[in-house]
Amino acid sequence: MSLANDWQQQDFSVEASLAQNSTKFYQSRINQTALRSRIHTVQLYDGFGISGNLAASLERFAGLEGEQQSEFSYDAGLGSRLFLSPISSVDVAASFSDRYQILSVDEARYQSSDSPLVNSEQRTVVASWQLGSATQLRSLNLTFRHRNDEKTSAVSSRLFKSEQSNDLGARFTNRISEDTNLVINVGHSKYDLGFQSGTKKPDITDALVGFATDYFGNSSLEVLVGISKRSETERQASSDVFSWQLINVLSLSESSSLQISTKRQLTSSPNPVFLDAQLSDLEVDFDWRFLEDWSVTAQMQVANLEFGDGSTADMLALRTNLGWRLNEYLTLSSYVKYEDFDGEQTRFIHAGTNAGMSISWEFY
Question: Considering the entire predicted model, what is its pTM?
Answer without folding.
Answer: 0.88
